[in-house]
Amino acid sequence: MSVKVSLPQYVSMTIDYNGGFRAVREHDYCKLGGVSGMSVDIHDTSEDDGSICHGDSMYGGESSFPDVSMQSGSISHSSMGSSNSRLGLLHRDRYIKTRTTFSGHSVVPRSKVAQSTSDDLLISALLDERYPTEGLEGYQEWTVDISRLIIGPAFAQGAFGRIYKASYNCQDVAVKILERPRNDNERALLLEQQFAQEVVMLGSLRHKNVLRFVGACQKPGVWCIITEYVKGGSLRSYLAKKRAPPLRLAIRHALDISRGMEYLHSNAVIHRDLKSDNLLMADRCVKIADFGVARIEVHSEDMTPETGTYRWMAPEMMQNRSYTHKVDVYSFGIVLWELITGDIPFQKMTGVQAASAVVSGARPIIPTDCPDTLSKIMICCWDANPDCRPSFSEVVSLLEDAQVVLTESIGTPRFRRCSCLNGSPTIE
C-alpha cells in the first residue's frame, strides 16, 4: 500500500508501507529502503507565506494521508528517528496530522545537514503522546500545548540540547529542548529545580528589549522552553557582515541594550553572559537573549576558551571571586566597543590569552576618533573595580546625553563611523 503527498512544482512524495521511500524534488530522484526508522522534514523557505512543515516522531493521528498541497516547499533534510512517525503539513492555517510506519534511509539533499539520531530522540521524547505534558504547579498558563507546536530545523546548539525554529499558535518561535543529564541524578535534580525557577522568572518579564517568553513544558527526560523567534540574527553576525554601523545607529542599539539590562537588573536578574552573540536584531530594536535557561547551561559546564565568553567576562568572574550585577555592566562596555568598532574584542588572542590579559588590566583599544562621551562610558563600564562601574540607569542617562551632544555638534542625525582597529589592547 502506498500513499502520495504532492506539493505542486516542488515536491512529490510516495510513501510505501512495505518497501522504500521515494522523494522527487524537481528533477532529483531518490529511492530509499532497507533501514527502519525515518523522519522527513519539509520546510517552506518562502518569506511571504512563512509556513513551516515538519515530520517528526510521534504516536497518534489519523490512519491515512489526505491529499494536501502547498504554495511552496522543499525537502530540507531527513534523519533517522522512530519507526512511528507523524508527517505534518501546514497549509495556510491548517495543520494536518497523519500516522504511518515506513522504512527508509536518511536523505541529505545538497548543502543540507541532517540532524543527529540523538537530536531526533529529543524531539520524539517531547512529542510522544504516550506521556502527558507537564507544566509547573501554579503556573499552568505557561504550559505549552504540544499539539499546536510544529518543530522546524535546528539553528543553534547548547550544552544539553538544541534550539529549533518552530511554529506555535501560528507564530514563529524558537524552541529550546534540554536533555536530562544521564547517569548523574544529582545534576539532573539541580537542573530540574533551576528550570522551574527560571520559567517562573521568565514568565514575569515583559520588555521590548528582552526576548519574549512564550511558554515551557517538561516530559520524561526533556525540558522545553519557547521564546519568540527573532529572524535578524545576532548582533555579532550583523557586525561581521556590515562592520561598524553609523554612530547614530550604534548609540540607538546601545540604548536598546542598556534599557533592557536596566529592566532585568530592576527585577534582580543578572545576565552573566552579556555579549554580541546573545543580542538579537529585531526589526526595530535589539533584544537581549540567553539570560534565563541558558544560565543553567553555563553553570553546569566547565567554561572553555572556545565559548568565546572570556572576551566579554568581568575579571572578578574569571578569578572566581564573588560578584554582583556589575559584571553585566563590564560586559556592556565591551559590547559598546564592538558597536563602535565592529571588531571582535581581543581578536588576535585566544580565549585564555584574553582572560589573562583582562585580569592583568588589558582592555580593547578605543579608536582615536571615537567621541569622548562614548569613550568615557566604555572606560567607566569596564573599570576593574566593580564599585566604580555605573548602574544601567546611569548608563542609559549617559548615552541619552551623548546622543543629544553628538547630534547638536555634528548637525546631522547620521554620524560618521569610527575607525576599526585590529591592534593589541592597551594596558591601563
From TrEMBL:
<dbReference type="InterPro" id="IPR000719">
    <property type="entry name" value="Prot_kinase_dom"/>
</dbReference>
<dbReference type="InterPro" id="IPR051681">
    <property type="entry name" value="Ser/Thr_Kinases-Pseudokinases"/>
</dbReference>
<keyword id="KW-0547">Nucleotide-binding</keyword>
<dbReference type="InterPro" id="IPR008271">
    <property type="entry name" value="Ser/Thr_kinase_AS"/>
</dbReference>
<keyword id="KW-0418">Kinase</keyword>
<protein>
    <recommendedName>
        <fullName>non-specific serine/threonine protein kinase</fullName>
        <ecNumber>2.7.11.1</ecNumber>
    </recommendedName>
</protein>
<keyword id="KW-0808">Transferase</keyword>
<comment type="similarity">
    <text>Belongs to the protein kinase superfamily. TKL Ser/Thr protein kinase family. RAF subfamily.</text>
</comment>
<feature type="domain" description="Protein kinase">
    <location>
        <begin position="149"/>
        <end position="406"/>
    </location>
</feature>
<dbReference type="InterPro" id="IPR011009">
    <property type="entry name" value="Kinase-like_dom_sf"/>
</dbReference>
<keyword id="KW-0067">ATP-binding</keyword>
<dbReference type="Pfam" id="PF07714">
    <property type="entry name" value="PK_Tyr_Ser-Thr"/>
</dbReference>
<keyword id="KW-0723">Serine/threonine-protein kinase</keyword>
<dbReference type="InterPro" id="IPR001245">
    <property type="entry name" value="Ser-Thr/Tyr_kinase_cat_dom"/>
</dbReference>
<dbReference type="GO" id="GO:0004674">
    <property type="term" value="F:protein serine/threonine kinase activity"/>
</dbReference>
<dbReference type="GO" id="GO:0005524">
    <property type="term" value="F:ATP binding"/>
</dbReference>
